[in-house]
Amino acid sequence: MSTLGRYSVETPESIEVTFELAGPGSRFCAMIIDTSLAWLVLFVIVIVAIIAGAPIMAALDDDAPADERLDSSAAAWAVAILIAAAMLALFGYYTFFELILRGQTPGKRSMKIRVIHDDGTPAAPLDIVIRNLVRVVDARLLRRRRARLAVQCTEQAPG
User: Fold this and answer.
1) 72-100 and 125-156 helices cross at what angle (nearest 10)?
2) How far apart are CA 52 and CA 45, in angstroms?
């Protein structure tokens, strides 16, 4: 049974357990904290890539000695590793922390909220992985809807 801001479940022992649902404000604050931390991780990855990539770029230079020169495939691999690390940081952040912290990320933990099943039990690892895969797909669909709406509004605008 659900009422405004609360969710109740009756156990097989006929005991009613009530959960307080997280409101949009606490969810938004948790999202801001988590997004900031994920981008901070990405920033650190980029800084490390720049520092580690300097010798690679120097070795790609035509003026480098022949025994120290690299071919362009090393640079391509470095870029591929950077892209993979960035994807892992941005998309794996939520999954990693929700798995390790039993349904919480640092943002959710600071706002004292967590992911649970509708019966109040903790979310299973497979549930967390699927939930975060759907988050990626849902974000892409939402972006397309916003773009389509912007185009429609522009086409209907007077003048």
Assistant:
1) 110
2) 10
Q: How confident is the model at residue 95 (pLDDT cuts 50, 70, 90)?
A: very high
Distance CA 53, CA 56 (A): 5
Contact 115, 101 (CB under 8 A): no
Q: Please provide the size of the chain in residues.
A: 159
CA distances (Å), origin 7, targets 18, 19, 35, 112, 134: 6, 5, 28, 16, 24
Task: Classify residue 118: in a domain, yes or no.
Answer: yes
Give the structural domain span for 63: 24-156
Q: Which residues contact 112 (CB under 8 A, 6 or more apart)?
A: 26
**Total domain count, the chain:** 1
Cα four-point dihedral sign 138, 139, 144, 146:
positive
Please report whether residue 17 resides in a domain.
Answer: no
Please check whether residue 1 lies inside any domain of the structure.
no
User: Could you report the per-residue pLDDT of 28-44, keeping only the tens digit for each?
Assistant: 999 999 999 998 998 89
Q: Residue 10 domain-assigned?
A: no
